[in-house]
Design brief:
Layout (H helix, E strand, L loop, with lengths): L7 E6 L2 E5 L7 H12 L4 E7 L4 E6 L1 H4 L2 H14 L5 H8 L7
Antiparallel strand pairs: 1-2, 2-4, 3-4
Length: 101
């Protein structure tokens, strides 16, 4: 888990979101862990993490991510890996169900 209190959604379009995660700068091991966690979410197509800029680009399938199982996994990953980001708000932006786990 990153101690990342300043995670921000930099850009969002349906199917594409870019996060700014300054805590990832010069931390390839943490980026690898974060990447594996995001790749475990159903509907995530591609993931590009830059440890130079602290940027995370996620390309996803909107219809798959809208499923309850995928939303549950996304919520868990956000809470585990990026606790500085409001998981409920992200789910709302993505139009995903807000499962309680």
């Amino acid at each position: 888990m990153l101690k990342a209190d300043d995670v921000q959604v930099a850009h969002f379009l349906p199917g594409r979101v870019r996060l700014k995660v300054p805590a990832l700068r010069d931390r390839p091991a943490e980026a690898e862990v974060l990447g594996l966690a995001f790749k475990s979410i159903p509907g995530v197509k591609t993931l590009d993490i830059s440890t130079v800029t602290g940027s995370v680009l996620i390309i996803y399938d909107v219809s798959i991510l809208a499923s309850e199982d995928a939303a549950r996994r996304l919520r868990a990953v956000l809470r585990e890996q990026l606790p500085g980001l409001d998981a409920d708000q992200v789910l709302k932006w993505l139009g995903a169900p807000n499962p309680r786990i």
